[in-house]
Amino acid sequence: MTAKLEKPKSVSAKSSKKRANTLVVGHCRDTTSDHALAVAAELGRQLGAQLHVVHVVVLDDYPIDPDAADWEEQGEWILTEERHHVEAALIRSGLPWTYQSCRGNPAKALAAAADEHNALMIVVGTRGEGLRATLSRLVQPSVSHALIEYQHRPVLIVPPTQLSWAQQNLHHRPGGSS
Fold first, then answer.
1. What is the CATH number of domain 22-169?
2. Which of 1, 34, 46, 89 has the largest CB neighbor count within 10 A?
3. d(CA 76, CA 82)
4. Which residues form the UspA domain (predicted)?
């Protein structure tokens, strides 16, 4: 007796939530963030995902002298330059992307943006390990560590490196080193 095999039927999962095709990328004025952005852009290309870049405003975004008459204007200029920097880096990627600048706790802001966009994952850079990075964390806590500890979705932490394969296709900050 021979059994006749039926043609397989396609099965798809139905979900009430929008498909997660967004990568949320944390970005600050640091070359490690540029590297994370480049890696996220390459990953976005491979996954067919869009990027939502989040810059959380911190004190480092403002000039050192708070008594300067144009302190606020200088700070706003720096934030505008940060957005232009991200735009220049992503313009050639061909990926759809959005940009958000906000104030607050960076880990919480990234988690909120990921929830809002139903993100596939959050991508951030890291200062790395060693004495210099440890001392830096005393002044400014690690966003990547906070995300790992409290985030329910995947977090991709991009280690610092020299010139990466992904950065070769993106615009670099003048005077910045990778």
1. 3.40.50.620
2. 34
3. 10
4. 23-159
178 in Cβ contact with 167 (< 8 Å) = yes
Cα gap 124→6, rounded to integer Å? 47
Q: Give 34-54 pLDDT, tens digit per residue.
A: 999 999 999 999 999 999 999
- Tell me the pTM: 0.73
Describe the crossing of helices 31-47 and 71-91 by its angle, rounded to 10 degrees.
40
